[in-house]
């Protein structure tokens, strides 16, 4: 890792993890001992976002057990420990697995300075982009997501509707439309006070893949982030998206793996 990447990773860890802000209306970020966690309603994202870099291996199992007890006491039957490859102790992944957490697909943490990204939106013929304005648009986002990924969007629907209604300045939803049909959707979460905005989604239905829509969605959101004064874009990228983002100027900083605890 070169000095630029090291500096970006340190900034990300400090602003987005150690000093995390609530990521849902009505949610809260809690610093307790060796961890920082997000706590919200059952349909919000709940989980550990940071653990101390000097987390003592002798205490790690007890810290994990404390988080399980905390979320279980709140009535949450599922929460996540968002583990990064540079987190310590080195065997934290194995400790989480032993405590009953299940690892999901790893993703690459990529960050880019907004000023170094293209904001020129180039779209294939017949495709237009527009921002999400209301609940009907959220349903179009859900349709595009479910067609692109084949997965249920009910929990995300709740989260997006809440952001749109209660925190519209911290959320940007984008639709790629062909006529009245959504062929891709994406969103951007803005984190005031951090300098960071996060890119999420970007799934495109199969018939429209490989035509530059994903790149256009990145450029469209980068332009909005620049207009609003944000300095960095962050993505947790799948193996499909990561190569595209690298070509656009994003730097790979770490790998992140969701470890999910389900009590039933």
Automatic annotation (TrEMBL):
Sequence ranges assigned to domain N-acetyltransferase in this UniProt record: 127-264
Keyword Acyltransferase: yes
Highest taxon of source: Bacteria
InterPro entries assigned to the protein according to its UniProt record, in alphabetical order: Acyl_CoA_acyltransferase, GNAT_dom
Name of the protein described by the UniProt record: GNAT family N-acetyltransferase
EC code(s) of this entry: 2.3.-.-
CDD domains: NAT_SF
Gene Ontology terms for molecular function: acyltransferase activity
Annotated source species: Streptomyces sanglieri
């Amino acid at each position: 890792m070169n000095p630029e990447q090291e500096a970006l990773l340190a900034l990300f860890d400090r602003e987005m993890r150690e000093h995390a802000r609530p990521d849902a209306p009505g949610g809260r970020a809690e610093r307790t001992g060796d961890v920082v966690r997000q706590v919200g309603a059952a349909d919000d994202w709940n989980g550990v976002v940071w653990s101390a870099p000097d987390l003592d291996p002798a205490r790690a199992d007890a810290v994990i057990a404390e988080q399980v007890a905390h979320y279980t006491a709140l009535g949450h039957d599922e929460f996540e420990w968002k583990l990064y490859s540079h987190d310590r102790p080195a065997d934290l992944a194995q400790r989480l697995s032993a405590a009953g957490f299940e690892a999901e697909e790893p993703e690459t943490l990529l960050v880019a300075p907004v000023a170094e990204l293209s904001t020129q939106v180039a779209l294939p013929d017949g495709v237009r982009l527009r921002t999400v304005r209301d609940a009907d648009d959220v349903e179009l986002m859900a349709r595009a997501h479910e067609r692109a990924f084949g997965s249920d969007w009910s929990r995300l629907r709740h989260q997006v509707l809440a952001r749109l209604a209660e925190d519209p300045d911290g959320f940007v939803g984008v639709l790629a439309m062909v006529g009245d049909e959504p062929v891709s959707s994406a969103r951007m979460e803005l984190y005031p006070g951090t300098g960071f905005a996060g890119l999420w989604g970007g799934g495109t239905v199969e018939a429209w893949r490989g035509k530059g829509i994903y790149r256009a969605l990145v450029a469209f959101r980068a332009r909005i982030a620049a207009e609003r004064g944000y300095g960095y874009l962050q993505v947790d990228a799948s193996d499909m998206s990561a190569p595209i983002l690298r070509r656009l100027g994003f730097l790979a900083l770490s790998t992140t793996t969701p470890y999910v605890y389900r009590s039933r």
